[in-house]
Amino acid sequence: MIPDKISKAFNDQIQHEFYSAYLYLSMAAWFETEGLEGMGRYMRVQAMEEMTHAMKFFDHILERGAEPELLAIKKPQVKWDSPLAAFENALAHEEFISGKINDLMTLSIAENDHASRTMLQWFVDEQVEEEDTASKSVYNVKMIGDGGQGLLMLDREFGSRVFKIPLSPEFGNPAG
Ligand code: OFO
Q1: How much distance in Å is there from the Cα of 20 to the middle of ligand 1?
Q2: Is any ligand 1 atom within 6 A of the Cβ of residue 89?
Q3: In CATH, what number does 4-161 get?
Q4: Within 10 A of 150 (CB to CB), how many other CB atoms are there?
């Protein structure tokens, strides 16, 4: 059985992960409205990945005999001043999420909950990757600047990202 404190903290994290999906989907809508289809596609893929993150917490709570509680998701920002501002927002958000994952790890250690600790290790590693990817995106957009031919070429590159269906059933994939 999962400790109550952990289950409650995981419910909060489900909310954070779905908010991440909302934020990135909102960025996708904005990018596509601005004619940057590639960056829009990139953010759509990011939003789908975030939903798999939320499902990993959802499934973990269920597997350990408790019931996940879905909390309200607030409305995300809908406009950004520039593509760079959107990518900087994404990086800041990932840093915020890394802090949340670290807090969860600290809690699972304090509660002596090894099952949570093992599950959370995946997220610790994932956040290193998330921050790295987000900061490289910021760097690339900064190099190109906010307009012109370079931005369109970079947009095409962002558009090549594809969503990889996770193979584990823990990610909410019934076929896994
Ligand atoms: Fe779930 O990693 Fe981004 O937010």
Answers
A1: 6
A2: no
A3: 1.20.1260.10
A4: 14
pTM score, two decimals? 0.92
Q: Is 155 in the pocket of ligand 1 (CB under 6 A)?
A: no
Q: Give me the tens of pLDDT residue by residue for the chain, a chain 176 residues long.
A: 899 999 999 999 999 999 999 999 999 999 999 999 999 999 999 999 999 999 999 999 999 999 999 999 999 999 999 999 999 999 999 999 999 999 999 999 999 999 999 999 999 999 999 999 999 999 999 998 756 888 899 999 999 888 887 765 555 554 43
Residue from 10, 13, 17, 51 whose mutation best tests the ligand 1 pocket (most atoms within 8 A of CB): 17
Q: 113 CB less than 6 Å from ligand 1?
A: no
> CA 28 → CA 4, 52, 120, 146, distances in Å?
36, 18, 28, 17
Contact yes or no for 47/90 (Cβ under 8 A) = no
